[in-house]
Design brief:
Blueprint lengths: L2 H10 L8 H12 L24 H6 L2 E3 L10 E2 L1 H13 L5 E6 L2 E9 L5 E5 L4 E4 L2 H10 L8 E4 L1 E3 L10
Antiparallel strand pairs: 1-8, 2-7, 3-4, 3-7, 4-5, 5-6
Helix pairs in contact: 4-5
Length: 171
Amino acid sequence: MDKTLFDLVVKSHEQKHQYSCSASGHEFIMKLHEKIKPDDFPLQINMFNQGKGFQFEAFLNQNGFSGQDSSSGTEGVWFSPLDATNTIGVEVLKGYFPLVSLPQGSDFHIYVAIPNGFGGFGLFNPAAKSFRTQYDTETIPLLKSATNVNRPNVHLLLYSATGTNAPQPPP
């Protein structure tokens, strides 16, 4: 990933509403793929896009990607902490930025998996403009601590390019 682009996106991006973290996360990854401008907020402009989780498949589609949420907890995007870490690592190496839902207080917040330049990844919080974790070794315990008997797995949004939109893997 181009550090200059990342810095520009971080500087220009913001979470517009208290519960628009998923819309913000979707916008953030499209900015990193240079599908929308760093200062565009096509999802967050609609205040009704708050608290919707990973329900922006149409937005991914219109930007040349496909992805689908399975909030039922029984299919594809729910992983054990170790499997989530491994899956995120593979996706980041392919040039994607998976979204990760983690508990925050009595609710959930969306983080973006970002390559860390050392062959691994960290979890970035676009709202705070900071990393929650910078290394896989920090992420594994965080993902383990984020699960419980009611939510034993980690919820991810994985997406892929359609057509000729495949991202470039990080150097």
